[in-house]
Amino acid sequence: MGSNDSVVAIIFGLIIILVVLLDAFETVVLPRRVTRHFRLTAWFYRRTWIPWRRIAGRIQTPSRRQNFLGYFGPLSLILLMGFWAMGLILGFALLQHGIGGHEQLGNEKLTFGDILYHSGETFFTLGYGDIVPTSAGARALSVLEAGMGFAFLGVVIGYIPVVYSSFSRREIQISMLDARAGSPPTAEQLLVRLAGRYRKSSIDQAVVDNALREWERWAGELLESQISYPVLTFFRSQHSNQSWLGALTLVLDVTSLILAGIEDFNPGQAKLTFAMARHAAVDLAQVVNARYDPDAPDRLPDAEFESMRAILATAGLQLSNNEAAHDKLATLRSMYEPYVQATARNLFLTLPKWRSVEPTRDNWQAGPWDRLIQSRGLAVLGQKRLPPQAAPETGEDHF
Question: Cα(first)–Cα(last) distance of the chain, in Å?
C-alpha cells in the first residue's frame, strides 16, 4: 500500500470516528437541540423513516398499520446503535490499514477485509488472536478501540433505560386523558366532563387551573425529553387513538377556548399552559423536520364551532359570542395548528378533533369479553349492562 493511500485511509478513518463520536455525544449526552445542517442521526432517520412510512401507507387495515408504525421507534433505536458501532469499526479499520504493523497467523497476506474483521473483534473485545498488531501504533489503536467498545456498551446499557423511562412518564398523563376527555380525546369533552363531574351547573376555576397546571408541567417535560432524546417522537402510545401529539394538541385547543373567552373564568393559568404547550409544538415540529402546508384542512369549521358552543353551554360554559372572541380564537389557532398538522403528517399521526361527532366508547370501557357479556345479558360488576355506545356528550359520570 503506497504512502499516499495510507495517508488517505488515515484521514478518512479519523473523519469517520470523529463524526460518529460527535453525533453520539449530541444524541445521548448533549441535552439540547443541535441546529447544524448535517447530523448523522438526522440523516439516518430520514433515510429509514420515509420508506417505513411509505410501506405503512400501503397497509389497508388501520390496526395493522398502527402496529407496523409502532415497531419503528424501538427498532430504530437498536439500528442506530448498530449504525454507530459499524461506523467506529470502519473508522478504526481505516486507521489500522493506514499505519500497518499487523501480522496474521499462517503468514498470509493481509487484506482490508482482514483488517476490518480485526477491528470488529477488537471493538467487541473478542480477542481471538488470529491477527496480531506488531507495531507500537497498531497496538495503541487496538487498546483505544477496545476501550471505546466498552464505553459503547456502557452507552447502550445506560441510554435505552433512560429513553424508556422518559417514554413511561410521557404516557402516564396521556393514559389519564381516557376517562377525562374521551377516546380519542377532544377539547369539548374535557371541559364538559370537568364541569359535569364537579359542579354540574358550571365549571370550577380551581379544578380547571389544577388540571392545566399538570398539563403545563407535562408539556415542559415533553419538550425537555424529546429534545434530549429525539427518538421518542417516533415512540407511539399503547392505543391507536392516543398519541403525545394528540394530547399536546388537545391542551392547546382547551387553553385556546379559555383564552378566547369563557364567562366568569380567569384565564391566568391557561395563558401559562398555552405558552408552554405552544413552545413544545413549535420546537418538536423542527425536530421532525416538519414543513408548513398552506392547504391543510380547517380543524374547526363554523358549523362545528357552533355545535360545540351549544354543548358547552349545556354544561354551564358560556363562550364569548362576539367578533373579538372569534378573532382571538382564530389568532391563537394560527399560532400552533400549522405546526401540529405538519408534525402529524410527518409522523403519520391523527390529530384529535375539537368535538366528537359520533359517540364512542372510552378505552377503559372496552374489553375483549364485553360483547359476550352483553349478549348474555349479564351484569358488569353488579351494575347495569354497559350501553352499546358511550355516554352522550353531556359529560355524565360513568363511575
Answer: 78
- Residue 103's contacts (CB-CB under 8 Å, 6 or more residues apart) are 131, 132, 133, 134
Q: Estimate the crossing angle of helix 40-57 against helix 3-24, to 10 degrees.
A: 70
Identify which of 23, 70, 36 has the alpha carbon closest to the alpha carbon of residue 347. Answer: 70
* Cell triple for 95: 486507521
Question: What ranges make up the beta strands (E) of 93-188?
Answer: 102-104, 131-133
Task: Tell me the residue type at 225.
Answer: S
Long-range interactions of 17-25: CB distance < 8 A, separation 24+: 17/87, 17/88, 17/91, 17/92, 17/95, 19/87, 20/84, 20/87, 20/88, 20/91, 21/88, 23/84, 24/84, 24/155
Whether 41 and 28 have beta carbons less than 8 Å apart is answered as: no
Express each pLDDT in 340-356 by its tens digit. 999 999 999 989 988 87
Cα separation, 93 vs 257, in Å, equals 60
27 contacts 228 by C-beta, under 8 angstroms: no
Beta bridge partners of 131: 104
Query: In the structure grid, which three cell numbers stand for residue 362, read together?
Result: 372510552
pLDDT, one tens digit per residue, over 16-44 is 999 999 888 888 877 666 666 667 888 89
Partners of 87 in the β-ladder: none
